[in-house]
């Protein structure tokens, strides 16, 4: 394994779920070193967030920079993201069960630069108010958020 570059290993780690990430990081000193770098966490549509995963995310919150939960997370799960203060990118694309209530839990992610809410079609103008605290936000994807109007977009900018 030591013949694989650190950069390639970081890419491999970025595709693992939390359990596999931890297990691979415990195989040897070199893998542990690579696993302690800031990493991304991706979930596919079949992946369900368990208490184990949430605990792991919280424990390693300082290193988590990017999370992709496309289709696999709901409002109650978002409360567990509050501790991820160093999070820079959050992809919630097509998480159709997310509503304005869920967006309340994102307001503490002040370092967030990229937020993808595309396809979260239950979000309305009123929910965008919770995103006003995301002062470092550079990119917000609201593609197919059919209940977002110009009024909501303008309120977010104000």
Identify the notable features of this structure and list them briefly.
2 domains; 11% strand; elongated; 158 residues; 5 strands; five-stranded parallel beta sheet; 8 helices; alpha/beta; Leucine-rich repeat, LRR (right-handed beta-alpha superhelix)
List the helices and strands and how they pair.
Blueprint: H1 6-14, H2 18-25, H3 29-35, E1 39-42, H4 51-59, E2 64-68, H5 75-78, E3 89-91, H6 100-103, E4 114-116, H7 125-128, E5 139-141, H8 150-157
Helix pairs in contact: 2-3
Q: What's the rounded overall pLDDT mean?
A: 78
Q: How many domains in all?
A: 2
CATH fold-level assignment of the largest domain = Leucine-rich repeat, LRR (right-handed beta-alpha superhelix)
In total, how many beta strands? 5
Residue runs with pLDDT of under 50 for 5 or more positions = none
Helicity range of the residues? Answer: 25-40%
Spatial strand sequence of the major β-sheet:
1-2-3-4-5
Number of DSSP helices?
Answer: 8
Query: Would you identify the CATH H-level superfamily of the largest domain?
Result: Ribonuclease Inhibitor
State the end-to-end distance. Answer: 51 Å
Order of helices and strands: HHHEHEHEHEHEH
Percentage of residues in DSSP E strands: 5-15%
Backbone shape:
elongated
Query: What kind of sheet is the major sheet?
Result: 5 strands, parallel
> Which value, in Å, is the CA radius of gyration?
16 Å
Overall CATH architecture of the largest domain = Alpha-Beta Horseshoe
């Amino acid at each position: 394994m030591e013949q694989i570059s650190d950069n390639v290993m970081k890419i491999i780690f970025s595709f693992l779920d939390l359990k596999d990430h931890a297990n691979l990081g415990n195989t040897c000193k070199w893998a542990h070193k690579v696993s302690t770098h800031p990493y991304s966490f991706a979930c596919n549509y079949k992946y369900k967030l368990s208490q184990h995963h949430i605990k792991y995310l919280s424990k390693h919150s300082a290193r988590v920079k990017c999370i992709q939960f496309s289709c696999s997370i709901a409002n109650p799960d978002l409360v567990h993201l509050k501790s991820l203060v160093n999070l820079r990118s959050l992809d919630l694309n097509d998480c159709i069960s997310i509503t304005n209530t869920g967006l309340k839990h994102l307001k503490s992610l002040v370092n967030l630069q990229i937020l993808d809410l595309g396809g979260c079609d239950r979000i309305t103008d009123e929910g965008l108010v919770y995103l006003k605290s995301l002062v470092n936000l550079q990119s917000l994807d609201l593609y197919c958020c059919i209940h977002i109007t110009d009024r909501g977009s303008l309120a977010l900018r104000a």
